[in-house]
Amino acid sequence: MREIRLVSRAAGLPRPENFEIVETPVPDGEGVLVRNLVFHVFPGLRMLVGAGDGETPMPRLRPGDTLVGAAVGEVVSAPDGASVRPGDLVSHMSGWREYALLPEGRYVRLDDELPDPAAHLAPGVTAYSALTREAPVRPGETVLVTGAAGGVGSLAGQVARLLGAGRVVGTTGSPAKAGRLVAELGYDAALSREDASTADGLLKAAPDGIDVVVDNVGGEQLRAALRATGHDARVALVGTLASQLAPDGSGTSAPVELDLFELIRKRTSLRGVLAQDPETRAEWTRRFGGWLRAGEIAFPHTRFQGIESGPRALQGLLAGEHLGSVVVEI
Q: Any transmembrane segments, and where (predicted)?
């Protein structure tokens, strides 16, 4: 089998030379053997392979370690008493390799609720949790999604619309992506990075103010969004792309200066989103599958072919080349 390992920690944004493709025996031992079909390339990898310090949500990778990420695979063999049998599909976090040996409790058996196995890798549960739990949207409200062309953002606008939002505004750094957000993904307006960095720019697209913010970026866009919100606005803090995609630094710190007086005066609530609740995930999968089959939602993604394309896929993701999620089909 082949797997992709870290050769050296990256100073700045990782490059293909920080990784290597290694041939190694298919794992043999106690556990469920899974042949991976597709894995997710996610921007948080930048933190895990970076040379900097700082706390990360997952353990940092060291040179020689195999990369990690969400994957969907087919069970090849399973011991007696396992909760899965050969032929079952499972999701797990041991992507970036052709086979994975998983102990009980480190995988989730998948059913046929989603029409495409790759759709299980869509980060929509984060958008769904943000818009139903941390910053619930009410019918007719205006929703702002920063970083709207990313994996979460490209689903967040569609979910907001399905949940009853009256106006949905997104931000992105690419004019081509801005056009697709409006033409294909249900956004009423898509703003450039420059317009999104000022309250005046945001208010041109949302003249009645912003009620709900799904923030994937942080930095100046978060500051501007908070100035453009009305009273009792809800803000879901999802990501920190402004720091994760910055060439300098490690992506593990995302400082931003906020006017607390303004937040108190407008009774603004800010809440972080991790979307690790199994009940929320199950609810999202059920509704996502129904929306997909009814043609009410799309899963925007770029699909690379072959495990060897993984480092190139990560480089393109961090350079902002793609709209939606990035997956590698093995």
A: none
